[in-house]
Amino acid sequence: MMTVKECYERLGADYEDVCCRLLSEERILRFLQMLLRDGSYQELCDAMGRQDYECAFRAAHTLKGVFFNLSLTLQGKCASALTEALRSRQENEEIRPLFEQMVSSYREMYEAIEELSESQTGGSRNG
Q1: Tens of pLDDT, residues 62-95
Q2: CB 70 within 8 A of CB 18
Q3: What's the predicted TM-score (pTM) here?
């Protein structure tokens, strides 16, 4: 069974910091699960597909805040770098590689949180 601490270690995140902020593993898990249901990542992907850099900037900026508030340091750094590349709201050579890093980082995080959730609930549930 994966613990919240093990999940944070796997992601290179700051477990001690999130514990100080959210005070219990149950709260941390609840917020991590809420993150998986948040639409900001999909909004970012959709905006990048349309080359809508204004919308992509807002979505990346939102993700940056959420990641740092949950002490997901590596994901926060990816989102922060992408946010800065998108700040001009215009195409530039930095955006695509930073977006690809963000996608990779997000997928890794998503998989780890899913694994954590399943181990905490005794397996996946339907409905």
Answers
A1: 999 999 999 999 999 999 999 999 999 999 999 9
A2: yes
A3: 0.89
